Amino acid sequence: MMAAQSAPAIVVDKLGKRFGTFSALDAVSFDVRRGEIMGFLGPNGAGKSTLIRVLCGLLRPSSGRAVVSGIDITQDPEAVRKRIGYMSQKFSLYSDLSVVENLRFFGGIYGVCPGAINERIRFAVDMAGLQGRETSLVSTLAGGWKQRLALGCAILHKPDVLFLDEPTSGVDPSSRRRFWTLIHELSAGGVSVLVSTHYMDEAEYCMRIAMMAAGRLVALGTPRELRQQSIGGELLELECANIGAAMDLVAKIPGVHDVAVFGDALHLLVDDGAETARAACALLAEHGLPGASARQIAPSMEDMFVHLVRTARAQGAAAGT
Amino acid sequence: MKIRRIVAIGRKETLQVLRDPRSLTIALLLPLMQMFMLGYGVNLDVKHIPLCVLDQEGNQRSQDLLKRFAASRYFDLYKVAASIAEVRHEIDGGACRIAIVVPAGFSRKLVDQGAATVQLLVDGTDSNTATIAAAYAGSVVAAYSGEVQLQAIQRRGGQIQTLTPVAVQARVWFNEDLESSYFIIPGVVALVMAIVGAQLTSLTIAREWERGTMELMVSTPVTPMELMLGKLSPYFVLGLVDAGICLALAVGWFEVPFHGTLPTLFFTTSLFLSVVLCIGYYVSVSIRSQVGASQVALILTMLPTTLLSGFSFPIDQMPALVQDITYLVSARYYVTILKAIFLKGATVSELAVPIFSLTAYAIVLVVLAARAFRKTLD
Amino acid sequence: MNAAPDSAVDVRAVSKRFGALAAVDQMSFSVRQGEIFGLVGPDGAGKTTSMRMLASVMRPDTGGILIDGVDVLADPELAKQHVSYMPQRFGLYEDLTVDENIRFYADLFEVPDKVWRERALRLLAASGMTPFGKRLAGQLSGGMKQKLGLTCALVHAPRVLLLDEPTTGVDPVSRREFWQILYALRAEGVSMVISTAYLDEAERCDRLALLHQGRIMYCDTPRKLKQGMPGAIILVTSAQPRPLLEVVQGIDGVEGVLLVGDGIHIHVDDAECRLPQLAQAIAASGQTAGGIRQIEPTVEDLFVALLERRQQTP
Q1: Which of A48, B364, C185, C210 has CB atoms 3.0–4.6 Å from C218's, for a disulfide?
Q2: Mean pLDDT of A33-55
Q3: Is C224 in CB contact (< 8 Å) with chain A?
């Protein structure tokens, strides 16, 4: 792919941002290729929004350097803003304006030249699949349509980089898939996409995922790489009767680090899956809970994420004292 | 009805009021500001009107008439003009608001024909003052002409003396004895209480709908009556504080004589406060937005109180239909009560009728307001 | 209406319209004692309307609801004594402290003083909120607000808990902690109805209903739900998955293809017979693939499959 060889769309080098004594971003470094879709996961306050605001030129970094589309963000934030598109969770559309009126308005504020605006509006309408709905008021559109219109508004000025903030939460799955197909098409056309989300499903659509906690980047890799990373042990799913009682029992088995209820089963984080599985079933049978079964399961992306965040918090707490 | 729930809601509401210094400041400053603005602004007294006289006759009779004007406390003789042009200059320049021109031949006409005219020039830019000034001037002239007439009749040996004292007496009543601020200030107190009281509660329910806290509240077993009583209680206390401020200003600053007793005042004020708080609450329940509720509450209290309570426009001079409508204005009763307590020192038993009306009003509103609240989102 | 024995919530053919829109259409389900029942679906599927009707703050147009044996339509105020409702929007007072909020709800439900104080201490401790009793609710983080909401909802020890999208906008770590609290409540016999737009959360419920446009598309345990998935999902990993799309599209038995971050998901009618066919086709195309294997379908896969099947057979 041609995109892979060209210069990165975003270079972030030891970027830091402090608010008083609070470090919102702490020496964050990564780069994003042209046409790459990169997801940012992290709990509230992890620094995702701060990072996006710095990259959009809305906040000045306290230290480090960031180059977006070849422009240093501290030198010419205005030029950066012309090359980026932004779509927020709440799709800031005017519900009392029609589809085309919204597009024309956003074309105006993004500075699309008047000669090109009609062609860009047609492109956005076609891309979003809004043909035939051009004169509909936004308030009459269903969630999935609004979301695609918001995307259309964000790409009118042909940005090199697109920022998406929880773009599909609450949208029905068919619309969501359609949306992500669009994002992949944009990416094939060379647009780099940065997505910030809480939604693990959404992260799966990204080519690479950056996990953030307490202002730092704690993991970076493809979804497959992340799933293969250690979560500090192996994951066991234990099915048994009376999980409340079972929980207290298995927690005391040596080599069990964490026990959590999941639906009608227990999830155990253990050193050795096979050995603990046997030990747990035996122990439960001994205490009058026979018929338990345990199997090793692959950790989900969320397991991975929770593990990383907890580790980062523990380190933060240890460093703080 | 559970006291515990009412207390819980009252405590919650109190904490919220105390933690919002901005609205608390408004609740206490608003009555203060309104008392001053309305107390001075709606002063219907017109005194010391600068007067210009032009005496084209210049004899004893015309001087008699003009002396009466100069002697009146409503007019200050500002200028004795020598020509009609000078009169025009004084009025145009705004130095004088009214001018009396006694034409040449005034006395002759009066004696020969028994009727003569004087010219009254009034600056009409402030129509209110102009009307009152003209009325005062008219009454001065009427009093004078009445005497002249009387003298004429007496000279012809007539015996109709009883006619004039009645007329003269009435004019004296109207013109000389009354300080209108004594009437106005109690009315202003009622107006301020009505506006502030309804404003206090107009936000209380609308705010909870807007903030999303009402959805949780209606899912609990709380009853509409408990909710209302709990919600109103802190505003009742705040309203009494406001009433205290207004009444203290009325007596201390505007020097309205107070002949009544404090318990009577407190009791009747509490009644009126209940009414206006319920009006605000009712509006807040019906209109689930803070801005809308606040505006509607303002209109619902300010307009009727200003126009129909008898505080600025005397009710007995209104058309019959409008007079009937004033019985629906709660402030009408409170204005009556306040005037009576302040000026006459009326007691509860003397005020039985307006107090009964106000009580009935309060009970109807409490029931209406409580019933207006629906525990659903439909 | 006769309640099924052991059922904490019984919903019978409930419908609710707003003008021309059928927000909830002939919905029926029941929740057993001590069960976590999920209402799962996208925005506009009717989750919030359903929850409001269960909480007796909205009346259904038709149908009936029993909560803990109480007919909600006949006696909504009695039903309210048995349930606790956590609306989607944070319903507590941001200008009141944590303790003041708890006390307010304890008073509204007339919980004896000693009882609620003891209960609040325990609930706050369980959710790690003990140090924040004097903090204003408005100054809590999103996850902590939800925990406070839950504490207030639990202070009168309701039999049934109604949670409307409690985890929306809450990060995965806080979301996990929240679910652990729910499981602890389940162990105490509290029945719960929880709505969520996060389809992956469905797997945490004991039973769930998949909602779409006001109707229940599917209602069972998560496990049976996945077994009921028509066909199977095959994952082909690849660093450059785009070209693979064209390769697999049009192959017999392929019902859908979805591009994900580092590969493609192929929805096929039968895994065993299609897997070798697909592997062969990819090898023949000369495209590189990291691996090809069957994966467990997600709830979203199922949702989309059910939707497609519904659209085919109206």
Answers
A1: C210
A2: 88
A3: no
